[in-house]
Amino acid sequence: MDHINSLVLSAGSIGGPTRRIFAVHETLENIETVFSDRLWPQLASWNERDKHAALIYSE
C-alpha cells in the first residue's frame, strides 16, 4: 500500500481525461485488488471504453 498510496488517494479526485496505470500484468492484478470495490471504489478498469473508470490498466 505504501507504493500506491498516492494513486489510491488521488484516483477519486482527479479530473480530466482517463489516465493509465502502466505496469507488468502481475502488478496490475495486485493493484486491481485495491480498486475492487472492497478496499476502495472501483475506479480503474481493463476496458478502455469504461466511461466510469478514472484509471485504465495498461501493460
What secondary-structure arrangement, pairings included, does this model have?
Elements: H1 5-11, E1 19-22, H2 25-34, E2 44-45, E3 55-58
Describe this structure in words.
The protein is built from 2 helices and 3 strands, in the order αβαββ. The two termini are 20 Å apart. The longest helix is centred in the middle third of the chain and has 10 residues, at 25-34. The protein has a 3-stranded parallel sheet with strand order 1-3-2, with helices on one face. The chain has helices at residues 5-11, 25-34; strands at 19-22, 44-45, 55-58. The protein has one domain (5-58). It is an alpha/beta fold and 59 residues long. It is globular and about 25 Å long. Helices cover 29% and strands 17% of the residues.
Short summary:
The chain has 59 residues and is of the alpha/beta class. It has helices spanning 5-11, 25-34, and strands spanning 19-22, 44-45, 55-58. The chain is globular and about 25 Å long.
> What is the number of helical segments per DSSP (H or I, 4+ residues)?
2
Radius of gyration: 10 Å
Strand order of the largest sheet: 1-3-2
Give the tally of β-strands: 3
Strand content: 15-25%
**Biggest beta-sheet profile:** 3 strands, parallel
State the distance separating the first and last CA atoms. Answer: 20 Å
The sequence of SSEs as H and E is HEHEE
SSE class: alpha/beta
Uncertain stretches: none
- The number of domains: 1
Percentage of residues in helical conformation: 25-40%
Shape summary: globular
The whole-number mean of residue pLDDT values reads 84
